[in-house]
Amino acid sequence: MREAIQDSLTAGPLTISYGRRRILDGVTVGPLPPGSITALLGANGSGKSTLLRALAGLKAADGAISLGDIPLGALAPPERARYCAYMPQTLPPPIRMQTLETVLVAMRTDNRSRKSNHIAQALKILSDLGIASLAHHYLDELSGGQRQLAGLAQALARSPRVLLLDEPLSALDLRHQLEVMDLLRDETASRGMITIIVLHDLGVALRRSDQAILLAEGHVVSAGPVNQVVTPEHLRRAFGVEARIEISSDGRPMLLVDGVA
Ligand SMILES: Nc1ncnc2c1ncn2[C@@H]1O[C@H](COP(=O)(O)OP(=O)(O)OP(=O)(O)O)[C@@H](O)[C@H]1O
Q1: DSSP code for 195
Q2: The pTM is what?
Q3: Which InterPro entries does the record associate with it (predicted)?
């Protein structure tokens, strides 16, 4: 446990602006321990993507960002990319490159094993995501959801310690959403990753993440274990909706939204 805390991700207080406009003000993150999934929640424009990009080193932030005793915020982008993999909200561009090739390119950043091992590992990731049959298809021939899965494969292929995903389920059908969340749970636990996912589906967040950070207007409304963050009072403040948490017949929490507050 001591090791887990030492290797945790912590950030803040962070202040992040676009030009003169302050987007996030005094936001703190963590400590988020290895092996945990954190849902980053909030209404449109609340600052989720901005915070995720800052953690990835793609947006300047005032304030410290550390992984254990590694000062991530002070690392140059190529070095930081060894620790953090980031998948943006936009789908991977439909380039004329085979899916397997794009995963191999993603792997090369820090993988020292032999090329045949690379290929086996890349195929395993594609297979885990249910898209092994697309290995030799070109990205510009894939559907939107298939491209999103390919993007996820590229992020996992980097073997990051911190996995930052911006709405990774947005183009996926119901079954793929569940499969991807289950896979992320397994991979996060087995690799000891720190996974942060921007999610709009609060029900998925409630059932599949360990912790949550709820943002509103550039501030943290609540952060901690997901069942203490996703509460009627917090949802009223952050989203302006009336909601209830009920326990479903399988004994797990279920979110019901009754309407606008
Ligand atoms: N490149 C930019 N330049 C200026 N302002 C920006 C830029 N990107 C985002 N913003 C502003 O920052 C605020 C937060 O945006 P952000 O994309 O972080 O929100 P979000 O919570 O991810 O929203 P959504 O759920 O709609 O994706 C918004 O008011 C947005 O207009």
Answers
A1: E
A2: 0.92
A3: AAA+_ATPase (IPR003593), ABC_transporter-like_ATP-bd (IPR003439), ABC_transporter-like_CS (IPR017871), P-loop_NTPase (IPR027417)
Residue boundaries of the structural domains of the chain: 2-83+160-260, 90-159
135 contacts 87 by C-beta, under 8 angstroms: no
The ligand 1 atom at the shortest distance from the C-alpha of residue 42 is: 21
Residue pair 212/38 in contact by the 8 Å Cβ criterion: yes
Q: Are 256 and 250 in contact (CB under 8 A)?
A: no
Its CATH architecture, for the domain 2-83+160-260, is 3-Layer(aba) Sandwich (3.40)
CA–CA gap between residue 261 and residue 242 (Å, rounded): 5
Contact 14, 54 (CB under 8 A): yes
Q: 2 pLDDT band (50/70/90 cuts)?
A: very low
User: Which residue puts its alpha carbon closest to atom 24 of ligand 1?
Assistant: 44
Q: Please determine, for the modelled complex, whether the ipTM score is greater than 0.85.
A: yes
Q: Is 48 in the pocket of ligand 1 (CB under 6 A)?
A: yes
CA 28 to chain centre: 17
